[in-house]
Known about the structure:
Elements: H1 2-9, E1 21-30, E2 37-44, E3 50-56, E4 81-85, H2 97-112, E5 118-128, H3 130-142, E6 147-153, H4 159-165, H5 174-179, H6 187-192, E7 206-211, H7 219-231, E8 236-241, H8 252-266
Helix pairs in contact: 2-3
Amino acid sequence: MAAVLLLLSGCATYGPERAGEKIYRDVLFAAPDGHKLRMDLYVPRTDRPVPVVLWMFGGCWRFGSKGYHVNVRDLTSCGIAVASIQYRMSYQAVYPAQLDDCRAAARWLRDHGAEYGIDATCMGASGESSGGQLAAMLAAREGKQRIRAVCLLYTPTDMVDLARLYTKRHGLSLVDKLFGGHIDEKLAIATEASPINHVSRSSPPTLIIHGQFDGVVPIQQSERYHFALADAGVETTFLVAPGQHHWFRLDNDLFAEVSVFFQRHLKR
């Protein structure tokens, strides 16, 4: 996963407000064990409350920030707010702390979103890489009545398989560190943290995008998840990004798919 770190260093934060939107930065939504967690809200300027997509950044659960690589940032142009959240890194707390933080952000939006022009009864979730795992698990825990649609970008869905892929002879991999120990000692929590083990008929509609040549998270992780959702009778779409590896920005065609997907499921 070293490639992720190199790419992170080249990702710039998004700039100032654009025409037709309002940005609320560093909004405090929780402080578990003294760790102040904040979100950035990108909200279309309109007289009516708008739907919202909760965004979880990637970075091996250990690196990154809410300001980096907000791949669904442009949803504001089609009338959907984006809440990009910070969550605790694995060196601050082991899983499921990260999922707890995502759920706290969702609760905060339901309680306070209206103050920022957001209708949190129409909430979706999205994330890339490790953030996608959190988005999928958030949907599994919250249910489709609260998380109405999910978009996953090059996402790990079987944490046991991923941990075994990165097993080290000496020391812990970044996946092991998420769980606080070697995978052989953490099978129960790694199994519980695997979105593929939570697929059911009540899973929300899901859009999955994965790079054709991803060498960090195998594309089979997305394929298997897609087929599991389909077998459960859940609406699911799986798109392969031709020529892409891990950690890429959505081009115009892929963003159009994401935009249409969330508009269909979140807008009243």
